[in-house]
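Hi team, as promised in this morning's meeting, here are the two structures we talked about. I've kept the exact order from the run log so nobody has to guess. The first one is mostly here for context; it's the second one we should focus on when we meet again. Sequence first, then the predicted structure tokens.
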Amino acid sequence: MITPLLAQASGSADQVTDTLSRSQQFLQNIYVWIAQNGLKFAMSVLTAIIIYLLGSWMAKIIRSMVLRVMAKRGMDQTFAGYLANILHGVLIVLVVITALGQLGIPTAQFAALIAAAGLAIGLALQGNLSNFASGFLLVFFRPLKRGDYVSAGGAEGAVEEIGVFTTTLNTPDNKKVIVPNSAITGGNIINYSVNPRRLVVVPCTVGADNPPAKVRESLLRSPGGNPHLLAEPAPVAVLTQLQEGKYTMELRAWCPAEKYWDAVFTLNEAAKTGLDRDGISGPLPAMKIIKE
């Protein structure tokens, strides 16, 4: 009875001794590797970090230089920003590959790995590839550019930037709207800034007892002295809708595209003031007959 127990205890002790021996050998190997290669590895890591930091800094400088050169040559800011962003991304990828090569990672195999990963990511993110292609189309065909006021992709505002994947708009109430490029190219684009002038329309509904000639004369006096309107083409007032007990006459005047909202607000107020001054009455409220 005692002999088997002693044999089992002896076997356990041998296993513990063997485990300790292996651990010591492992630690010894680590110590030898550190003693032989530790300094070299530390220098490689430090060099890789320096390459990355310096490369990122240089990529930003090159991007800024490209933007300045294109600006001096009068190139469109939208196209310049788009090209500079792509160039910056390519340079960052090259910097990362160079830094990893400094660590001893084979760059050829790593480049192949990046290509394979890029293909897999591309298949998974087909929408972003569509946005990228749409961004290129927006920059190349230029249906809109920075500063234009547009309605596109379900949003409306001034174009702040056309990016690689998205376009940024600023709304009149100072909200930033980020629209996918594919949403813009996939629908109608209304560019309110591409033409130098816009038409301001002020509809005025008055009572049917007001002579149209009197209403027209009153409305045509409204644009006088308005600094936001153009003298040519001259403003007009046209009767556009007839209804029972009332009709609608529109005052139409032209303004510079960038002055549109100022022209709308001031002309609305001037038209209302003129109609009140000339005694133009509004439509009477509809009579409701109650049957008992």
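And here is the second protein, the one for discussion:
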Amino acid sequence: MKLSFTTLGCPDWDLDTLCKRGREYGFDGVDFRGVQETLDITLMQEFTSGIAQTRRKLADAGLEVCGISSSIRLCVPEKLKENLEEARRTIPVARALGCGRVRVFGSGDPQQQSKQQMAEAGRECMEAILAIDGARRLSWLFETHDEWTKAQDCRLLLERVLDAAFGILWDMGHTSRVGGETPQQTWEAVGPRIGYTHVKDAIRDPDHPRAMKDGWRYVPPGTGQLPLKEAIALLGEKGYDGWIMFEHEKRWHRELEEPEVIFPQFVGWARSLGM
């Protein structure tokens, strides 16, 4: 398995810094979810007219672009036009960077629609995206997130879109902490469609000042209560040899550790597990 980090974890770093430090800390790749002030990299000069130079910088640093994390929300019908516009921008960027994966969200409004109705809206949107020229050369990976943290729910959309270009991004923290699933239960529901992973750890500590609304707070990988080791071991047993991406959400949670501290810790922990 290969190790990567998300740019959510280093929101103050420019491109040169993330190349330098990603290499220094021993990562194999980087997943782009914004750079500094801009969340959508497809709107940045470095990823449009200057993308050839950007790819050279990353290659010189020994970093692959393992993913582009989009804001596409498949199960929100009123966002169809916006989703397609973002997809059209993302496809040429991903291909120019040699990146084969795009993260998408499910989202949707459970107060207005059933899960089945939301999944049907997601099917319509995903089929429209896959009809765009070049889309099927990428993997569009639906994250276990927001209204879709249970793998059993995710199957509702996966079963409607059987195209090999559509699959699952397994956020191990979400399915365990929010979805209440064991790694084995997640695998049994969606395992063969998993094409990418997000890893972060947390501990239930409702009285801590850094606790989130659900009473959990993020901690360095391997020091929390989430079954990360079990999940990663299960992936290995099932033949997964793809990316393990450390999703340190510093952009959203400024109180978290600085990337200069937590990134090397993550690599050391992951390598201790044989990755």
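Starting points for discussion:
The chain has a mean pLDDT of 97.
The first strand starts at residue 2 and ends at 6.
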